[in-house]
Design a protein that fits this description.
This protein has a three-stranded antiparallel beta sheet with strand order 2-1-3, sandwiched between helices. Strand 1 and strand 2 form a beta hairpin. With 404 residues, the protein is mainly alpha-helical. It has a domain of 53 residues: Ubiquitin-like (UB roll). The chain is built from 19 helices and three strands.
Length: 404
């Protein structure tokens, strides 16, 4: 029998992790339930997960999964059984990867595996947050509502992603154009002046800025392969390091502290967390379980750790707002709203309102960031091109003076 790793909560709210042996994820969930534990996350052990996770290598877009969640919710709401619903969605899907995934899920569900457990076999399509929410919806009897909310959440995140990409398109074009202009100048334009400056070079009167310019031009022309190789090594080295727990923590900490970009990253992460937590509470899931499910929605290890500490403090009897305030990552106005909401017993509604407010704030920050980036990049390009022009013109003036 295969081994499964699990993360679960006791009735007291205490977190439990470990490994158990079972025939399927459904059986693993039943074993945990028999131990009095609520399964938050169940997955194949790492040495066995690759066989399940690598069967379907294609890509499924966020829009496609959002549509899938919404259609499945509508079919279930109309009284269509789950297996029949999955079969219909499989037939009408135009994405071959999604068809294969739905076929596999339907087969597993037909064999007695729960929907959430079947989805967990495809982490590239269904993330841990969606699996945890579906599992909670199954156990709480509100699967249709959860599917609708996941669909709305994913659609909302895709809209935000499109807005961010669209806003950064022009600055990215400026950066690419600037790089292209400088490369052309260094490779084709600057070398043509080198023979003209030979006399000054022999006399030792070559301006330092011109010498530096010629050195850069030589380096770009003669050692471009070394530059590309070094850049590739740095890129792949960084990507490997950033995937380690310590590296991911450092990268996420830097992301939310960056000038200009930091407020945008922070706003997006906090909005996701508040929206998912509000959704969980709205569906009657206890606060502790909701916190453990929603912490990964931030997409940021630093914020997830802060939520984890908040859950531990809530277990000890504290209010949610207190540990969030002490973490230093949550804006004061949001913490105050959560404090008042806890006192008024309307936390789930306020959290959704906070998420909406954060989205508007993030949109303003994004607009401001783009407005600042454009002149900064134009100024930077002007300085670089101006430096090249000065480096080429100074020797010309010196030569004309010498000839006179």
């Amino acid at each position: 029998m295969p081994d499964f790793t699990f993360e679960a909560l006791a009735r007291t709210g205490a977190k439990s992790t470990g490994t158990l042996t079972a025939n399927s994820e459904r059986e693993a969930a039943l074993i945990l339930d028999g131990r009095g534990l609520f399964p938050v996350k169940i997955g194949r052990a790492k040495n066995q997960a690759s066989s399940a996770g690598g069967l379907f290598g294609g890509r499924v877009s966020g829009r496609a999964t959002a549509t899938l969640y919404a259609q499945l919710a509508d079919l279930l709401h109309s009284g269509v059984p789950l297996l029949r619903s999955l079969e219909l969605l499989e037939r009408q899907s135009t994405n071959r990867t999604l068809q294969s995934v739905l076929r596999d899920i339907r087969s597993r569900v037909a064999d007695g595996t729960g929907l959430a457990q079947a989805m967990a076999f495809h982490p590239k399509v269904f993330n841990e947050l969606a699996v945890s929410m579906v599992r909670a919806g199954q156990e709480g009897g509100f699967l249709e509502d959860v599917l609708k909310r996941i669909a709305a959440f994913v659609e909302h995140q895709e809209d935000l992603k499109s807005k961010v990409i669209g806003s950064l398109a022009y600055p990215a074009f400026l950066a690419l154009a600037g790089f292209g202009v400088v490369t052309v100048l260094m490779v084709f334009f600057v070398p043509k002046f080198e023979s003209i400056f030979e006399k000054l070079k022999e006399q030792g009167e070559m301006p330092k800025i011109t010498s530096l310019l010629l050195w850069v031009s030589h380096s770009v022309r003669d050692y471009w392969w070394l530059g590309l190789g070094g850049a590739a090594a740095v890129f792949f080295g960084y990507r490997t390091w950033a995937r380690t727990p310590n590296g991911r923590m450092i990268v996420d900490r830097v992301k939310i502290r960056l000038p200009l970009f930091g407020p945008v990253f922070m706003g997006l992460a906090l909005s996701r967390f508040c929206r998912i937590l509000g959704t969980m509470l709205h569906n009657g899931i206890p606060l502790l379980k909701s916190l453990h499910i929603s912490k990964d929605s931030t997409g940021n290890k630093v914020l997830a750790a802060a939520v984890e500490r908040a859950a531990e403090n809530v277990t000890a009897g504290q209010k949610l707002a207190d540990p969030l305030r002490k973490s230093g990552h949550f804006p004061t106005d949001i913490v105050e709203m959560i404090t008042i909401a806890e006192e008024a017993n309307s936390l789930e509604k306020v959290l959704i309102d906070v998420a909406d407010g954060l989205d508007k704030r993030t949109a303003r920050n994004l607009e401001l960031m783009v407005k600042l980036l454009e002149p900064i990049m134009l100024l930077f390009m002007a300085v670089v091109v101006g430096t090249i022009a000065v480096g080429l013109l100074m020797p010309v003036f010196k030569l004309s003076t010498t000839l006179k």
